[in-house]
Amino acid sequence: MSTTLAEQSAAPSPEWMRIAEAVAFSRISKPKLYNLIGRGLIKTVSLRERGQIKGTRLVSFDSLRAFLESRATGGISPAA
Prior knowledge:
The protein has helices at 5-8, 19-26, 30-38, 61-71, and strands at residues 16-18, 44-47, 56-60. By secondary structure, it is an alpha+beta fold. The chain is elongated and about 55 Å long.
């Protein structure tokens, strides 16, 4: 029986993570990650106060994991 990335990890996964954490987790380059975000393939949220120029962008862990799983190849397929 096949396991998902979340099941393989003993530690609970975060709901949201910063861009640097998403890059470290996925091993996708920062420009590629922003490209995927811009294309709407990975869900994010930007936290910014009114009047601020910069904010904090958070990446959905579930969205990132789902994207990686959708692109995965090889391994053993679960029984149908």
